[in-house]
Design brief:
Helices cover 63% and strands 0% of the residues. It is built from 5 helices and no strands. The radius of gyration is 41 Å and the shape is elongated. The N and C termini lie far apart (125 Å).
Length: 163
């Protein structure tokens, strides 16, 4: 048998392929909306990437033409702020500053300034309310550390409640 011409064979192949694709069409139609949405999202993301790349290149070029923007007045950072201590606050009592200047470490606890909070806590049990109040006054007049002031206030309250 003599082979058929190439054109006839290609046409027959196309007809069979078209028939196969027509049979698959109902299955493909079900997934078509998802495919279209997916491809649209991919295209959108590619466009966004290109726009961003162009903006970055533009920023690089334009940054050489403009002077650098100074830090705005309203921009503050934690390391820029200085903590407010009691010595920076105005005194209500005109004699308060003088009292702070002359306040000395209590004689009954001469190493007070070198003590950690844990070391101080261990020594507080041996002190009476008057000594505790003297320590509190000294702490408030000097460093006024919140954790020390709080601990001294709580201990004073406890000692007074036990008396």
């Amino acid at each position: 048998m003599k082979p058929l011409p190439l054109g006839v064979r290609v046409a027959a192949g196309l007809a069979v392929t078209a028939l196969e694709q027509a049979r698959k069409l109902p299955q493909q139609l079900a997934g078509l909306p998802l495919t279209v949405v997916s491809e649209a999202m991919q295209l959108s993301m590619r466009v966004q990437q290109h726009v961003t790349e162009l903006a970055i290149k533009g920023d690089d070029v334009l940054s050489g033409l403009r002077p650098a923007e100074e830090e705005p007045e309203w921009a503050t950072f934690d390391e820029d702020e200085t903590p407010v201590t009691t010595s920076q606050l105005p005194a209500d009592d005109p004699w308060e500053e003088e009292e702070r200047a002359i306040a000395e470490v209590p004689e009954f606890l001469p190493m007070y300034d070198e003590l950690s909070i844990a070391q101080l806590r261990a020594r507080l049990r041996n002190l009476n309310a008057e000594q505790l109040e003297e320590l509190l006054h000294y702490e408030q007049a000097h460093e006024s550390r919140p954790e020390f002031v709080g601990m001294l206030n709580r201990r004073i309250a406890t000692v007074k409640a036990q008396s």
